[in-house]
Amino acid sequence: MRARPDTRGRAGRRPFYDLLMNVDRRVIFLVIAAAVALPLVFPLHLPVQISPEARAYFDEIERLQPGDQIILSFDYEPDTMAELDPMSYATLRHAFRKRLSVIALTTYAGGPGIALRVLGETAAEFGQQYGTDYVFLGYNPDYSATILRMGESIQATFPTDHFGTPADSLALLQGIDRYADIELLVSISASALTEYWIIWAGGNYGQRIIAGNSAIQAVLIYPYYDSRQLSGFLGGLKGAAEYEKLIEHEGAGLRGMDAQSMAHLLIVCFIVLGNVGLVMQKLRARGDAAGRAGSAG
Amino acid sequence: MRKTGPVVFGFLVGMLMLIQYFTPNPWIQARYNNVLDWKQVVFGITLMLGVLSLVLFHWRKIEQRQKGWGYSVITIAGLIFMIAAAVWRGQNAGPYLWMFDHVQSPMQSTMFALLAFYVASASYRAFRARGFHAALLLTAGVIVMLGRVPLGEMLGFHAGERYYSLATISDWVLNYPNVAAKRGVLIGVQLGIVATAIKIILGIERTYLGKGA
Q1: Which of A12, A152, B112, B113 has the least CB density, counted as fewest CB within 10 Å?
Q2: Contacts with B179 from chain A: Cβ below 8 Å
């Protein structure tokens, strides 16, 4: 471990700027933990405003008619489910409320467990029947071949669903075999999978696509929304909260907004603190230099 | 022949994948579908190779009693347990699903959640305005960080009839400078992919054949 330079003054006390610039990381961890936990226990109910991207996401599903088909791809694993599960739940609630037919799948080996839980809970909430109102095709190895092959034939790509039932015997998939039969594709992702859906399913087959992305990934897909290759998207937990507000169903997204606000605010406060220390250090160094020059003169 | 055969094969398959994009010819489309099906099979086999490689790596560590060999025992035991559980009761019930819901999910979520604490600590130490570029990055970071939460929507001012908040400025940063930079990167990457693909099809780029090709 690298030793910290000794910045103590003549009296042996650390200068104030040094305290500001070197807050113990355990203090930071404790403060952040408190900032996240307290608003979850004592909600502040900060107002959430709807962004144009989330409004577009909502509108894309809202314009569909009962019986229209959508594909919902669970493109994530348990690591990001705190951020993305609220989007999946809200999307399915919106879809089932509108009586849309949902064809779910996952491009991640760790995705089936998540998809089964989210689909199972929301289907039970709305009394949806497996096979007629929704199906789960499961996981297929190799996302690039899967996305491209689905454009030629969904049933050839997934000859059986996740439970081993032949795809051609599922009532929902009768007459549904290509992107042309699908009204909308939804990718909930924490990786570049959304970009691949846009490039291969959107670019090659003209599929309309909306996406829910982790906050980090959302920053990268703005160009696709700007060029209308992506019809709408939700960015991070804030996007999920906006969408929950639009469908008028409070979930983990809205509940998490206060905690996220407080955590971001505290991180900014710490950054400001560090920079105040830096300015003080520079002023002190300048003063010392001027003093030395004066005494030398 | 050892070098020419794969290069010719690469040329033919590359040209097929290129031509299929521009023609609805049923024969070519059928071959295209064959290639996509084979690709999934090959991917499945690479997964198996990955598992084999993982087992061999950890087995060697256990055999030689290398540092941390106990963790290797847990890794192999976990792998065998999950495979056995899936074969015994399937993926949708029993111990496999239980392990996924109660062990893998919480552990992966916990690892990711820990990032919040490290990001907080790292931001505090790294975001120091030591120069113009650092100050620019710092300012943009702070604006986007606050602008992407409800608090940022409350911090703002009225100018005439319009309300400008940190969220407004954050949206501008994400929609203009961010899009411009990302678009530039995307175009550069795509041109690079096209150039590499042409080089592979024409046999100029042969590193995929291994050493000495």
Answers
A1: A12
A2: 222-223, 226
